[in-house]
Amino acid sequence: MLQVALRHGFQGFGLDVGFSAAEAGVTALFGPSGCGKTTILGAVAGLLRPLSGRVSLSGRVLLDTAAGICLPPEQRRCGLVFQEARLFPHLSVASNLRYGLNRAPPGATGPGFEEVVALLGLGALLDRRPARLSGGEKQRVALGRALLSRPQLLLMDEPLAALDAGRRAEVLPFLARLCDAARLPILYVTHALDEVDALADHLVLLQAGRVLAEGSVEALALRTDLPLAARRDAGAVLACTVAAHDTARGLTRLSFPGGTLLVPLRAEPVDSRIRIRLRARDVAVATQPPQGLSTQNILAAEVVGLGPAPTPHEAFVRLRIGPTELLSRITRDSAERLGLAPGLAVWAVLKAVTIDRALGAA
Fold it and tell me: Rounded CA gap, 316 and 221, in Å?
């Protein structure tokens, strides 16, 4: 387990945070620019010495200012990936990758060269030099080099931020596969919620140098008291299983605890797990069974609560479908006109479903 407790300050900014991350999986540090995400990453990597703090990884102390312990970066076994790929321009892709492999400590285990090349789709690029690579291709090489160094911890500082939308969409699936294959703790800095949905197993929400909340992506997505609720894409995140494909209709059926959903035909095989986002603004509420709609996802639900939304004329409605909870964002007028109250049986009308992450075989 990675355990982090840090205090630092400079130029009027104060950082005072504490959190932990599991032995494997992605912990996303999420928040607006200037909230302290990169400072945390620098302190964990050993690139910055905080005023006080303690960082330990699987019981090994990397930093303990009270005890006078501050391991240099090269002894911390951290693999770093930055916004810029920082490849060696005079080396081929293969040589850049092997540089990482050559820096791995003797006896260290991890994915091999061929596995990483296949994982990141680099086979056709091995003889090229960085000048002949796109931005997305460069980042894939940087990811591979970091993983081949056989780190005990991967640190990623907004690795997709320097890419345009097209290149981000190209790299994100490769990055998700790498995170799943790495089998080690990963700290991932971002201010992009779609990257959190696509990659993170655990979320640390930061604001002004403090931890507002931490927990699973699914749990924090439902909390309307957090800044996440003010976003236009606020809503529930569900882990689903691919139940069946109907190629004739061009549809895939997903199952989740309490119900099923129909989405456009997916490539993942049956029994694959997929994470989806149901944006609150795309969930309508009906008190009678709707008919004659193009929307196919209409689910029986129960109102379990109502609360304020970021704008005064709107409200969040919390809905329960079996053990699963959703959020709907509607006008206060609609909530009053429909007489919505806890315990009322309603229908949730899902106007859109966003697929955020393929999670692998169930």
Answer: 13
The token duo for 197 is 């949905």
Tell me if 22 is assigned to some domain: yes
User: How far is it, in rounded angstroms, from Cα 78 to Cα 146?
Assistant: 9
Burial of 157 (0-12, 13-18, 19+ CB in 10 A): buried
Q: For position 262, which CATH number holds?
A: 2.40.50.100
Considering the domain architecture, whether residues 173 and 263 belong to the same structural domain is answered as no
Query: Is 222 a domain residue?
Result: no
Strands 60-64, 52-57: parallel, antiparallel or unpaired by DSSP?
antiparallel
- Phi–psi pair at 145, nearest 5 degrees: -60, -40
352 occurs within a structural domain: yes
Mark whether 98 and 64 lie in a shared domain: yes
Greatest Cα-to-Cα distance within the chain, rounded to the nearest angstrom: 70
Q: How confident is the model at residue 62 (pLDDT cuts 50, 70, 90)?
A: very high
Same-domain pairing of 175 and 109 = yes
Q: How do residues 143-182 score in pLDDT, each as one tens digit?
A: 999 999 999 999 999 888 888 888 888 888 888 888 888 8
Q: Is 165 exposed, middle or buried (0-12, 13-18, 19+ CB in 10 A)?
A: exposed
Domain span including residue 326:
235-361
pLDDT tens for each residue of 255-297: 999 999 999 998 889 998 888 899 999 999 999 999 888 888 9
> Given CA atoms 214, 219, 221, 225 in this order, what sign does their dihedral have?
negative
Check whether 358 has a pLDDT greater than 60. Answer: no
Q: Please give the full DSSP string across 48-83, using - where no structure is assigned.
A: S--SEEEEEETTEEEEEGGGTEE--GGGTTEEEE-S
Between strands 297-308 and 345-350, the pairing is antiparallel
Residue 175 falls inside a structural domain: yes
